[in-house]
Write a structure and sequence with these properties.
Elements: H1 9-18, H2 23-32, H3 36-52, H4 57-69, H5 82-91, H6 112-125, H7 132-142, H8 151-169, H9 181-194, H10 200-214, H11 226-230
Length: about 240
Amino acid sequence: MSVEAFANAEELFNQAFSAEDPLPRLIELLKEHPTHLALRDLVVAYTEAVEADPARGQRLASALSKLGHSPDAPAISTTDTLDALLNRELADYHFKWAGFGEGPHTWGPENQYLLESNLSGLSLKNRLTSTSDMLAAVDAGLNATPGTSHVQEVVVGTCIQLLLAGSVFASEDAGTYRKTPADVAAKLKKQKEQGTVKDENATHVLELAIAQAEGGLKPETEIDNVYGLLFPDKL
């Protein structure tokens, strides 16, 4: 973090997000420090918590969503709701650096592109924020070319987002990035046929994304913990 909004802000927000239910402590901290800088530090702590433990991502994202709509949360702005402020703050943390890690052997739970895909899918699923970078990342995986650099990561990143929040991409919320389930299914099947995904668990995730698209990209077919399917022995 940069200069903290208040003394021990980083530690206190980290502690809040490590709780079984982060919401009560987050509200308490914001009531004590109802500033934009505190909100910035809260969002940074959230993104770091999701990256540190992707399996808890949905629980953490849900807490952030509830915070934005809680009647108990303090007013930080006279013109914007807390939900709107969180939306704008969080938007700056998605796919601003779409890296893949260092060296040629980067596949694993710490792969930065996969982590960013997970964070993005959680934001879309919980209506926390939505940007063109987040939506375009799904297009990149659907239209990936075999043999290109890090193609497996790009395709699996798309599957992560779709399995978390596929219904968003089939709705008006996706704007110009809206897709028909049939088109998504066809493009994912093509990726499977072309062999762009090699890892066994990743292939299973790709197959789940295909089945989800064939079923209409409905909310009830979305999965909360895709990362646990990708790396069942490492989380």
